[in-house]
Specification:
heterodimer, A: about 290 residues, 10 strands, B: alpha+beta, nine-stranded antiparallel beta sheet, four-stranded mixed beta sheet, 26 helices, globular
Chain lengths: ~290, ~750
């Protein structure tokens, strides 16, 4: 695989306006992100827009000191799942930011199910915010996926770009490796063999990641740490983000559009979605891959 | 002692040690194999065939190092069931059909090993497995108690009615005729001998294992009695029967039942119990192996599968790894798999050339051995230990025990697992979470720096998702540092805690370390270190009343007194020290072949490096198991040249001193030499250590047993739980001695 990695630089960021308890905080958060990235901000509302809604919305903007002119507001009636995506397509949105809730109940939470639909049908990056606050917190620590996958170079480049915009200080590149590639240690001899093989794999992957990072423009304040982990893809990086108390987790978009089958037999992204460790950014890259 | 090499070189270097160990084991295995065959309802030769094939084949194909393979205790019960059911009452026909099931189970075992399903044994909750094993013990005991007093075919078939019938038969003995009485006396006498054997203080007697004594004496009585009488002393039917034409009368197993469900039930049960018993034994032996080699469990399973199939074809019982005989193997100095091989060959020689001798063995003697084995499997001394871990564990133990007695082995253990899960739901109040996260991965393992690994466990850890944890634990080299962080888990169950204790030991032995963090969920020392660790406890769990120490640190009276005492002497008291073993017990010869189960009541004087602790340990397993409690002091005297020695009044250390290659040493202080037995190898160093001040001090104080390994001293008084008074006495003795050593002599 030999091509230049292009970061997805978010120029148009949209958020869905709902009236959940987190609405104001989400609005604040998205506005901040848009400001830092130098992007245009869009607010979409799907459903009936009443005067009451208008009033609440205006009061939010006032309390957060957001000028109304800084936001492009669109309201449309219809089925949220369909209309939201059509609005994104119409306005050529790069990044859709939604407030999500980490799993608290057994049954589905609305926004996460929206997220699945977006991933399934749309071609836009998705940001799920789990712990937005009105005051805001600097996004100090980012965990990004560094596995050997065609989409990774772009995702990695995006992560680097984003961390410079958001002022992050630590970027953990997590390389999820397949456990099956290891020799299963049955006894003392195979234990040594297994360790040797592991080290070898890690060395190779380190070379690959180093090459990728050299293509990106890394700012001096950003400390990049590499971690190679053997485990189930998707789950492992989510667990790692939880352990390291990351502020943002950045992953590749799924290869298959997520359907019912993927939800029952969990894998990859589903593990992350069903138990969000922190804010999640699913990077969508539309680059056509060329094999050198 | 260095680790024996593998392969042919290992054989040539160690064959003498292995031959000796194999010989002793074969003497033990001989009567046991016959006994187990009889307990299974099979002809005596079946047990012997299984031992021979087990020894010869598994030694070549296996993946463990010091294990002995042959007919197993747990399988006796299953095989009996198979023979009875498949034969529809006709024991002989049933035997041949059961052989078919045995061959098939061998194939299944082989498959298990190929697919690396050896990990399945870890899936079972500890208390349930213990309950099942105890039930097996009762079942064996119930049936064999009848044979022991002369009733070869009792009326009942279920264990509980059998037990009642036993007492009835016992009463009936009084009016029985002389032949039966002879048999019953033989049986009961053997049993009494076995019970009292461990108490006998004659060192030479213990060189030969108890079951062998029983057989030798029984055979002796039979032969002498026969000579005097003119006819067989015991009626023929009560003697072991190995027909002279046993080889030529061999025929193929009967596979006709292969279409029947009952055949497959038998085969699957055989596979199941064989794998559990073998896997438990292999893991147990890994801990007893003096060289701490790690066995390839799946390779062993494959070997056992092949051996079982071959044994079945030749008319023998299933082949499993047996921990009782394996521990005899190790304590007799076995080094490599050759010991297993020799044990098999020697049994073959016995059968071929000493058959007439074997047929003189009275059955009641063997039955007594089995009754004793059954009793040891039941192991009533473990009840209080399990209760200490947690009342819910005791409940699970007894539930599984009775479920197994009533419904059979597979249903019993299945019910046990189900109820364990239910109890966990209730106790930890995270029922829904358990269900939801059960199928998910929940472990994260990464290398933080070179040789330092972090393992983080999410959601919860219980016996059902343990295989994931286990595969992660196994992938870490035990020479490195591993930190297992449970702070993201809502609870960890007892089975997992037990497994972790084993891994902690493994890492320690190999020079690495495993540390458990994030487990301070309940109040610090409220629960037993191996008990269920749960966050729910903090809020006062539903079953708070059932737990002995609910939520708060409640010390017993003894512990409170010890706590006060330790404060007065500037020591720290920990009622339940964590399994990180600050006190290194296995540095002493005394603990060389003993496995420490857990420790309590640690009094630590850090500046003097003096620790007093109560240790619960055991040596051997099952029939050879000998559990004990010990209150001892471990002390590293500072600024003194400490020689290696053993100091004793009674002969407790005689066997151990033999290892140190030591001789009796006289200090020159007459009174001292009269009262104490001092052994060691470096005469000069020992004499310079035992100065007059030293011996005077020792004579002024109550006498303790002492072992020094050159770095630290192990001191204790009696091999049982100590009262507060005795504890204080021992600690004061050590403290006074430390005081005396640090003050320069005039």
């Amino acid at each position: 695989m030999d091509f230049k990695a292009t970061p997805v630089e978010y120029k148009k960021i949209a958020t869905a306006m709902g009236f959940s308890p987190m609405a104001k905080a989400n609005l604040a958060e998205v506005y901040r992100i848009a400001q830092k990235c130098g992007a245009d901000m869009f607010v979409f509302h799907i459903g009936q827009w009443s005067d009451k809604c208008e009033a609440t919305y205006n009061s939010f903007l006032k309390e957060l000191s957001i000028p109304k002119s800084g936001i492009t507001f669109v309201s449309k009636d219809g089925d949220p799942k369909v209309e939201l995506l059509s609005l994104c397509a119409e306005n050529k949105i790069d990044l859709l930011a939604l407030g999500a809730l980490t799993r608290e109940k057994m049954f589905k939470v609305f926004n996460v199910s929206i997220a699945r639909d977006v991933c399934r049908k749309a071609d836009v990056s998705l940001l799920l915010l789990t712990n937005s606050t009105v005051e805001g917190r600097v996004c100090e620590r980012i965990v990004v996926n560094g596995s050997d996958h065609p989409k990774t170079p772009d995702t990695l480049a995006t992560a680097v770009w984003l961390s410079s915009k958001l002022g992050s200080r630590e970027l953990y590149v997590v390389d999820e490796l397949n456990e099956k590639s290891l020799v299963h240690p049955d006894d003392d001899k195979s234990q040594l063999k297994s360790t040797r093989k592991r080290k070898q794999i890690e060395r190779e992957q380190h070379g690959r990641i180093a090459k990728l990072l050299s293509c990106c423009s890394v700012s001096k304040e950003l400390e990049i740490k590499e971690q190679h982990v053997f485990g189930k893809p998707g789950y492992t990086i989510a667990h790692y983000a939880k352990v390291k108390r990351a502020d943002l987790l950045i992953v590749n978009s799924p290869d298959t559009k997520l359907g019912l089958f993927d939800r029952i037999f969990k894998h990859d992204l589903e593990y992350i979605l069903s138990d969000l460790p922190t804010n999640l950014l699913i990077v969508h890259t539309t680059k056509i891959l060329r094999h050198a | 002692m260095h680790k024996p090499s593998s392969g042919f070189r290992g054989f040539t270097e160690n064959w003498q040690a292995d031959l000796k160990a194999g010989f002793v084991v074969s003497l033990v295995a001989l009567p046991i194999s016959i006994a187990l065959a009889l307990a299974s309802g099979a002809p005596a030769i079946a047990g012997l065939i299984s031992a021979v094939i087990g020894g010869i084949l598994v030694a070549h194909l296996g993946g463990s190092f010091v294990t002995i393979t042959g007919p197993g205790n747990g399988l006796a019960v299953v095989t009996l069931g198979a023979i009875t059911t498949l034969g529809g009452g006709d024991m002989l026909a049933g035997y041949y059909m059961a052989l078919g099931a045995i061959v098939v189970s061998g194939g299944l075992l082989f498959l298990l090993g190929t697919v690396r399903l050896g990990v399945l044994a870890d899936l079972f909750p500890t208390s349930a497995v213990q309950g099942m094993l105890a039930a097996i013990g009762i079942i064996i005991l119930a049936k064999q108690s009848h044979v022991m007093i002369g009733t070869l075919s009792p009326d009942s078939s279920e264990p509980i009615p059998l037990l009642f019938e036993f007492f009835a038969s016992l009463k009936g003995l009084i009016s029985a005729d002389i032949e039966i009485i002879k048999v019953a006396v033989m049986g009961l006498g053997s049993l009494i001998f076995l019970i009292l054997f461990s108490k006998i203080r004659l060192g030479w007697m213990h060189a030969v294992p108890a079951p062998l004594w029983v057989v030798v004496i029984a055979v002796g009585i039979q032969m002498v009695g026969t000579k005097i009488n003119g006819q067989s002393f015991f009626p023929e039917v009560y003697l072991v029967n190995i027909p002279a034409d046993w080889m030529s009368s061999w025929r193929l197993p009967d596979f006709s039942g292969i279409k029947e469900g009952s055949f497959w039930t038998a085969a699957i049960t055989l596979t199941f119990i064989a794998s559990i018993e073998s896997l438990l034994s292999i893991k147990g032996m890994d801990r007893l192996d003096p060289f701490k080699r790690k066995s390839n469990v799946n390779k062993d399973l494959r070997a056992l599968g092949i051996a079982t199939a071959v044994s079945g074809l030749l008319g023998g019982l299933s082949v499993v790894t047996v921990i009782a005989r394996s521990s005899v193997n190790v304590s007799n100095g076995a080094k490599t798999r050759a010991a297993n091989f020799f044990h098999g060959i020697l049994i073959l020689i016995f059968i071929l050339f000493l058959r007439s001798l074997l047929t003189q063995i009275p059955l009641p003697a063997l039955a007594a051995i089995l009754v004793f084995t059954g009793y040891k499997l039941l192991n009533p001394s473990q009840f209080s230990r399990i209760a200490e871990i947690g009342m819910e564990q005791l409940f699970l133990f007894f539930f599984t025990l009775f479920a197994t007695l009533i419904y059979g082995l597979i249903v019993g253990i299945a019910l046990g697992m189900l109820v364990t899960l239910v109890v966990q739901f209730v106790m930890t109040r995270s029922g829904m979470d358990i269900l939801r996260y059960l199928s998910r991965p929940n472990t994260l393992l990464y290398e933080e720096e070179d040789q330092k690994f972090i393992l983080n466990i999410n959601y919860f850890s219980n016996f059902l998702n343990y295989p994931r944890l286990k595969s992660k634990l196994d992938s870490v080299p035990p020479t490195s540092t591993l930190i297992a962080d449970f702070s993201n888990s809502s609870f960890v169950d007892h089975t997992v805690m037990e497994h972790l204790a084993g891994y902690i030991e493994l890492f320690e032995q190999k020079g690495g370390s495993l540390e458990l963090v994030g487990l301070d969920m309940s109040a610090a020392s409220a629960t037993h270190p191996l008990g269920v660790q749960s966050k729910a406890n903090k809020s006062g769990s539903l079953l708070g009343g059932l737990r002995r120490d609910s939520g708060k640190a409640r010390l017993s009276t003894k512990q409170e007194k010890l706590s006060e005492f330790s404060v007065m002497n500037g020591m720290d008291f920990t009622a339940w020290p964590t399994p990180n073993w600050d006190v290194k017990l296995d540095q002493f010869n005394y603990f060389k072949y003993r496995r420490v189960d857990y420790t309590t009541n640690l009094l630590a004087h850090h500046s003097r490096k003096l620790f007093a602790i109560e240790v619960s340990s055991h040596s051997g397993e099952f029939i050879m198991k000998d559990s004990q409690q010990l209150a001892c002091v471990v002390w590293e005297p500072q600024g003194v040249a400490l020689p290696k020695f053993v100091l004793d009044r009674e002969r407790i250390f005689e066997r151990l001193a033999h290892f140190a290659g030591s001789k009796d040493i006289l200090t020159g202080q007459i009174k001292f030499d009269q009262r104490f037995a001092l052994k060691g190898s470096n005469v000069k160093a020992i004499r310079s250590f035992f100065t007059k001040e030293c011996t005077d001090f020792l004579m002024r104080n109550p006498s303790f047993h002492m072992e020094s390994n050159g770095i630290a001293l192990l001191i204790f008084h009696k091999e049982r739980v100590a009262s507060v008074q005795e504890f204080k006495l021992m600690v004061n003795f050590a403290l006074d001695w430390a005081e005396q050593m640090s003050t320069p002599s005039e």
